[in-house]
Amino acid sequence: MRVLRALTVAAAAVVAVGLSTPFAAANPSDPLGGSPSGQGGNGGIGGNNGNNGNNGNNGNGPSNVTVNPYSVHQGSTMQVSAAGCRHGGTVWSAGNFPQTNLSAGSIGFATVRIFNHASPGNHTLSVKCHDNSLVATHRFTILRGNGAQGGIGGSFGPSTAETAIGSSLVGAAALGAGAHVLRRRRPLRGRA
């Protein structure tokens, strides 16, 4: 009788732990998703934010180009910002993501999606303003595979194997609890 109770409690504990364990996949080499040496960089061409002798182009030119995150997985998105493109511009990196528009303003922003088939490793992106021929560059790293699917839940469901294991654990717990209840209710033959 005591063994059956212990088995029932153990089965219930295993089910509770097994069903409450969250599943997550993350990049162990870069847990915070940032640049190994910090973000930023200025890759600008033309010096002094493009304000020295730009042949009548009103001093516009891309400078202080930054990317966030510095290391990005294939198929993920990356934020690019650049100063100096008051009338907007374009961002591109051949073979890594399509040419994307940079918003207008003192600091322009663009969100780029890395191709699923982009080759992992260190790469360079280019930024060019619409009203200027200067081009600024910045380095970034593409990581192999897909990144973590974050969120509060529902971002991905359990696999068939996980569902089968969970169902069998719940079934075993129910059988153990049922056997325990039946043994307690059955009167003993010699006593009455």
What can you tell me about this protein's structure?
With 192 residues, this protein is an alpha+beta fold. The protein has 2 helices and 8 strands; from the N terminus they run αββββββββα. Strands 2-8-7-4-5 form a 5-stranded mixed sheet, with no helix packed on it. A 3-stranded antiparallel sheet has the order 1-3-6, with no helix packed on it. α1 (2-20) runs antiparallel to α2 (160-185). The longest helix has 26 residues, at 160-185. The chain starts with a helix and ends in a 7-residue tail after the last helix. The model is unreliable at 22-58 (pLDDT under 50).
Name some characteristics of this structure.
alpha+beta; single chain; 3-stranded antiparallel sheet; 5-stranded mixed sheet; 2 helices; 192 residues
Secondary structure layout plus pairing:
Blueprint: H1 2-20, E1 63-68, E2 71-73, E3 77-83, E4 89-93, E5 97-102, E6 107-113, E7 121-129, E8 135-143, H2 160-185
Parallel strand pairs: 2-8
Antiparallel strand pairs: 1-3, 3-6, 4-5, 4-7, 7-8
Helix pairs in contact: 1-2
